[in-house]
Structure formats: C-alpha cells, structure tokens
Amino acid sequence: MKRAGVWIGMVVAVALVALLAQPILLILAAIVFAAGLDGGARLLGRVLPIGRGWRLAIILLAILAFLASVFVSAGNQLVTQAATLQDVLIAQTDRLLRWAQANGLTDSDFDPKQLLDYAMGSVGRVTAAVSSVIGGLTALFMIFILGLYLAIEPRLYERGVGWLMPQSERAHFYEVSAAMGKTLRRLMAGRILGMLVEGIATWALLAIYGIPMATLLGVLTGLLVFIPNIGAAISGILMVLVGFSVGVDAGLYCLAVYFVVQFVDGNIIVPMVAKRTVDLAPALVLGAQILFGALFGLLGLALADPIIAMIKVFLEKNAERQSREAG
C-alpha cells in the first residue's frame, strides 16, 4: 500500500503540474524578478550603507523612473512606429515571397499577413492566463507584486520551505537555495546589462543613419535580448526588413549594425558574465527554449534559460553531496 501510494502520488503530482503549468511559470518568473531586485539591492549596498528596504525602494524608483521617462519622451513615437511596423513587415514579406516565386523556390501563393500571423503564433501554446492583453497585464502585475514580496524578505520564505523538509535535508536545501540565488542574481545582471547595451547601441546606430522606427527597434532589441539565441535573431530580422524597406544601402547598414552589436555582446558581455555565472551550452539553452516554448508558450520561452541554470546548479550540488558522502 505504501508503494502504491507513492506511485499514485507521483501520477497526481504530474497531472497537477500539467494543469497548473502557467501559475507555476508565473511564480518562477516572480522568483527571477526577485533575484534581479535582490542583486540590485546587494550591489547598491556596497556603496550605500543603508537598510535593505531603502535600497530596494531606490531600485524600484529607478526602474519606474526609467520606464516613465522612456514612455513620456518617446511614447507617442513608439505607438506611431508600432502601427507602421506591421505594414512594413507585410510589404517586405510580400517582396520576399514574390522573389522566391520568380526564382522557382516556391509555387504556393502565400498571404504575407497570414504567414506573419502564423510565425507569431508558432512560438508556442499560450493559454488564457497570458493570451489576452488584460491577462498579460494581470500576469505582469502579479509577477511584480509576488517578486517584490520575495525580494523584501527572501529568508522568510526560504526558511518556510526548509521547515517543510526533513531536518536531515534542511542544510542541503539551504546550500542549494543559496547557490541558485547567487546564480540567478548574476544571470539577471548579465541579462540587464545586455539589454541596455544592445538596446541603446541599436537605437543610436540606426538613428545616426536615419533608419525609420529606430526608437521602436531599439526598444524591441533590448527586450528581446532577455531571450538568448532566439531574441537576437528576431531583432536582427526586424532590423534588416525595415532597412531594406528604405533601400539596399540602408538594409546592408542594418545588417552591419546587427553583426557589430552581436559581436560586442558575444565577445565582451557574454564572456564577462559567463565567467561569474553558470556556463550553459548554447545548444542546451536552445533545445530548452524549443521545448518550453512548445509546451508553455512565450512565458516558457523566456524562462527556459533561468530554469536550466537552476536545474544545473541543483544537479551540481547533488553530485558534490554524493561525492562527500562517498569520501
């Protein structure tokens, strides 16, 4: 009966994970956000000897001030550019399809708008929790509030989870939890640094040449950097399509900007961050993104990298524990 109960419990647990996938991912996203806030508070504590609560307040005010300044200074511009970006993408996709048909690469008559809608929808399954605009804003609000609570008193929740475990496992849990938190803080620091560098550099270089929608492309590039591998490719495609809508020279310039920005990120920022955090193989991250994107949609795609990093830390700590016990 005991063994049967274990197997039945495992089946129920798997079913609950499948049914509650989106809420679980929202909680994981809040943990990642809390790790970023905690890292910022720790970094600020090196120069400001004030309480943790005040440091978190400064970090939050800085984030809100940055977002407010961006939308106040470029809000109308972003809305206007976003409205025209879809038309540009449809026109450029239609040109590519006509060129492919003229060269015998395809015989089918595709509708560019349907093709773009399919490409946007093929990222993965997005359930009702985050599929609508209201649902997405609600999810972001819940991630923000939950992450804020976790960042204010991280030890409280860590001890709460530790007390649910057998006493013999608590020391190991605290060790694994500390290692995961350290990894997430450094991972988020690298992500934020990459988002700022690539977003600002892309906007500046495109604006210098006079590429249309430079502000929107800079913002999108900065946001997409949070998703390794796939995000950079999407931002590059958008830049090149917009550039070629102006002319061949502008398209080639956008292509050069993409490679220059990716070269700086791949050869300076990523190695600098990888030395101080979990070094994940690119194929492993890409495979996880494909899997989580297909299973859980856009949220799973964005959280694939942190989840794999936490799993790797967990496996490494378990291996170290087994090595110590084996002498």
Walk me through this protein's architecture:
By secondary structure, this protein is mostly helical. Helices cover 86% and strands 0% of the residues. The protein is built from 13 helices and no strands. It has helices spanning 2-19, 21-45, 52-102, 112-121, 128-131, 133-152, 154-163, 167-209, 214-224, 230-246, 248-274, 282-296, 298-326. Helix 9 (214-224) packs antiparallel against helix 10 (230-246). It is globular, with a radius of gyration of 23 Å. The chain starts with a helix and ends with a helix.
What does the largest sheet look like?
A: none
Could you report the average pLDDT, rounded to the nearest whole number?
80
User: Which bin fits the share of residues in helices?
Assistant: over 70%
Shape: globular
**What is the N-to-C succession of helices and strands?**
HHHHHHHHHHHHH
Quaternary structure classification: single chain
Evaluate the radius of gyration.
Answer: 23 Å
Uncertain segments are 121-131
Strand content: under 5%
What is the CA–CA distance across the termini? Answer: 36 Å
H/I helix tally? 13
Secondary-structure-based class equals: mainly alpha
What is the number of strand segments?
0
